[in-house]
Sequence to fold (825 residues):
Amino acid sequence: MKKLDLNGKWQFKAINKYTTLPKKKRHAALWMNASVPGTVHTDLMSNNVIADPFYRMNENDVQWIDSHQWLYKREFAVSPSLLKEDSVQLVTEGLDTYASIRINRKNVAETSNMFIEHRFDVKKFLRSGRNTIEILFDSPTVRSKALEKKHGALRVALEPHRVYVRKAQYSFSWDWGPKLTTSGIWRNIFLRAFSSARVKNPFAKIVSVTKEEAVVELSVEVERLSVRSPSDKKDSLQLRAFIAGEDSSVEHTVNINGNSAKLTLHILRPKLWWPNGYGEQPMYKAVLSLLRDGEEIDEIEVPFAIRTVRLLQEKDKEGTSFVVEINSEKIFCKGADWIPSDNFLPRIPDSTYERLLRLAKDAHMNMIRVWGGGIYEQDVFYNLCDRLGLMVWQDFMYACGAYPEASWFLKQAKDEAESVVNRLRNHPSVVVWCGNNECEWLFCTENPDKTPDDMSGAKIFRDILPAACSKYDGTRPYWRSSPFGDGFPNDESNGTHHQWFVWSGWKDYKQYENDNARFVSEFGFQAPANRKTFEEVTIAADRHPQSQVMEHHNKQVEGTERLVRFQAAHYKVATDFDEFIYKGQLVQAEALKCAVEHWRRRKFNTAGSIFWQLNDCWPVSSWAVVDSALRPKAGYYFAKKFFSPVLMSFKRIGNTLEVWVTNDMLKDVDGKIELSLRSFVKAKGVWTKKLVVNALANSSSRVLELELSQFAKYDSTEHYFSGRLLTADGLSSENRYFLHEPKHLHFPKAKVSRQLTDGGNGSFVLTLRANKFVKNVRVEIEGDDAVFDDNYLDIDAGSTKRLHFNSCLSVGELKRRIRLRWLEQ
Ligand code: BMA
Fold:
């Protein structure tokens, strides 16, 4: 197998087929340097044809780009030895989207799906020596609008023509994302030459697992070239499989007849892969070699892991459960929804994936949902999820609309599903295939007398996708949509649920406690990005919550208005930029906390709470808890606590305050709870209680009920309940309950002293001591992006908190730059 890389330096220019270039952009019709993988927008930025679309309102100035065609070209040298091989394929891992490929001025192929790899035999177009490849990208907007005109408009949220094109739907704008409709060679491109045969689409299918052994069926497809000479007919092909485990290895060889080969291997005493928080993530590796007459001609490596997955749906008094079960253990799914981390996909470095997914793991998440309006993610994403124990709920890329049912579209859907399932099925992290995001829910909301099957596109989600999943995988459940279930698709009593009645319905987050859904795969609250992140894309005059630029950086209709309304419910509304961001982030953090604690208390009546959303694609006020500059918001630090494996939480019912313990460990947990009623000013609790708890494995229970009337003599604006659970294993959970909204609490003037200790190797400990109670202390280091192990934290009067962090700065420098802020009257 020989490979010739075609990434790197290309040239590109605009072609004025549909319209002329804006006056000041005429030079875009001349050849400019391009970089592959890349996008037209990023190439135009490097050539100074456009300014950064994320800056202020520059997005508005770049809307001409997607109504043009863009031509990319490069030269490359082909060696005679490459041409000696029987087949030379052009492999494009991702072309965005309507691409016409020419080699040496001859038409090779046209593609129209950015999500999948394409390959074409191009040997006949190549010559020894210098060759030229050209790829013309047609306007995705012109093309999809033309299709919409021809086949009819469908009921779709946001830009309706987007459903006609197999391109990341968010690139046509979203309620958190700008309209930056890209084109380009967005993934690798190369030539691959081989003779006789090669292997593809390997699959390590886990057939059965017991303590003693795992049965793994290894299969490959064999791409055979037609025989060249009579002697080739004697070619005998064999597949040799070798599995390298941690302390075991097995090998087997079979003869290949036809275009596929399969063999079964037994792994003794298999080590199981577990989600984060439940155990390790041991990986195995299968090496599959293709032999011709005993000689190796191709080889493929398949990392895989051993685990089983089931979706439990059992009738119960609330309806039907919806529980993900891994290795026969019920898992409460804790996590967040995932969107692409940039509008310009090829420029996302691996380190961004690493950072975001590590943050997820550190916050005790065990599931990430890859949302259907983005992309089937890059390999690095799935590899990291495998390693970190993050289960992936994988949507197919359809979102918020009805989809065409024309035969050419259904064919594309089928080809895409086949390619995607083949690509992702070896990842143990992928545990659920899901048809789409919100298509049926939207349809049935607007057509109450109709069923999901009446929706255009239903064939894809009801028939085509599940068929591809069972044919090419068969080891994971398929779920038709998020949300979906029997009856109304967003019903609470069964299936999956998106809880948007609160945020979108302008309802206070306390309403989450009335939602008794079985598995919540979306719910969320917006918050502004961090101040530094906004400062990087604004000028001083923009930095007001309601400036035009800031409102541009919130893509939801009435987004800013909601931020104000929800802040008003809990805090005195800020107009100062920094204070607005600080309080806005606290609203989000408290909202997510309220919802997750409620659903975790309902474990396993509710069996999942996946919040919208982990990340952002540009600097924006959105539902994300980590902003586009990878700076966590307050909600992220709250997630570390509300997702902790053992959680102590308060629940208020009328005049009673209940104390609950939720235990995600697969074993019973012994612990002690120290509960107190504290005043804002005194170091000692005015009332305390200690109790011993035994929390049963993988369950949630109420451990105490307190009648609030007995505390009536204490001023409720200056007192609060504080509780701390400490388990025999050293796990802890701390929580507080306030009798009023922060806006009505009477916080005293407090002092927080700080002490910084250098732990060596760039690690530091910051000790904070409060003389009086301080709520939601935010710690920042000016000009440094240190992530603390805790932040936005409460400190009881006379108490101390230790925060750990890493930084390259010196102690002296850090001391000068540490900034604290907390809630004050
Ligand atoms: C749901 C998601 C996204 C959207 C989010 C916030 O609709 O699936 O489409 O961005 O809520 O509105």
